[in-house]
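Recall that a protein's primary structure is simply its ordered list of amino acids. Everything else, from secondary elements to tertiary packing, is in principle encoded there. The following example makes that idea concrete.
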Amino acid sequence: MSTAAVVVTVLAALWVGFSAFSVFARAKWVVEPLAEYGVPRAAWPWLGAAKAAGAAGLIAGLFVPVIGVAAGVGLVVYFTGAVVTVLRARSYKHIPFPLLYLAPVVVAMALA
């Protein structure tokens, strides 16, 4: 695995991990849009857990590649779903946010 792949994977994992932490901490700038999109509060911890598991899976994938691929695929599905949720809520100004999390995961997978 190249140095670039390791660096991008670690950065993507940290970025997604930060997103998970933001959900768990109920950061205002995260939970207000979730409420606006109609995402039930009961789902928020599960969304944070999915992101945290994906971030951990990306790191584990540096040692066991199949885990990294599974985590990457899961995160791509997750953030694609986030884009769809934002589009369904017609909150077009928020579309870039899930894409900012999706892009590094896609790049990490492409480099691995």
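Residues 3-111 form one domain. Helices lie at 3-24, 28-37, 44-60, 65-88, 96-111.
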